[in-house]
Amino acid sequence: MMDSVAARINEETSKVVIGRESETRMILECLLARGHVLLEGVPGVSKTLLARAFAKCIGLEFKRVQFTPDMLPLDIVGGFVFNQDKREFEFRKGPVFTNILLADEVNRAPPKVQSALLEAMQELQVTVEGHTELLPSPLLVLGTENPVEFQGIYPLPEGQLDRFMMKVVFAYQSVEVETDVLRRNLGELDLTQVREVVGNGELRRLISEVQEVYVAEEVLTYLANLAKALRKDERLDLGPSPRAMVQLLHCAQARAALEGRDFVTPDDIKSRAGPVLVHRLRLGRAAVLKGSADGTSQVVEEVLRMVEPPR
User: Fold this and answer.
1) Rounded CA gap, 142 and 51, in Å?
2) Which listed site, 46, 187, 197, 200, has its alpha carbon 20 to 30 Å from 157?
């Protein structure tokens, strides 16, 4: 059942975005695992288009915010405005009150604005001047960032990076896929052809099923050993947080469910360790000076080979 959901979504999104099945699958996993996704890639690799197509075939409310250096927190979470008719202040909800929020170029906003998302992403609520409002559920924040631009950006702090369950990298595609992209763009792409294939009731049931996927004690110990090995690695100044390992566990549950299994295997952990952990780790000065080409990705791969999985 779960695998058919992934196939339906891929079929619909591929009507407007070609060759991004793997990226779509990881976004779906994060949605089912109640996480958020950081989409990284140079401009023009279909990050925004895929987000819009994904939201449409899921049938969830979607809002997009273009982050800029002059934004204020109230532009995201909302704030109190004076109602002339009632002669009183009332809370006006910001764009974060939705199911899927596309935070476009999230690293262009100053730290004060970025911090406005922290409570929303972790606790599904916002607090303004002591007033707390609950957010819709589910909430999926899709933050996009350009990895090659250095002017006019504010690097995301570790606290915010740690709230993104996965970082999904949009690389350039093969010649064959790009040829197909060019062929399709001879005409205008039409998002109206993307149909809703997963209803709200079915989505909530799927999220509930993911939470029930069985995790053996040996797999939990394997996760704890991975965390210990990464934290002790001399190449890293910052290892994975407990939140990171919990999110890796939830992501592995979602992957197992989409594979049609009701239990997590070590391969589920290994498959998603990179996307879940790499953006949370920080290389130490010595490792940076050595000029490691793959950085934290290489560290994660080596630790995965070193730590013995359960059999």
Assistant:
1) 8
2) 46
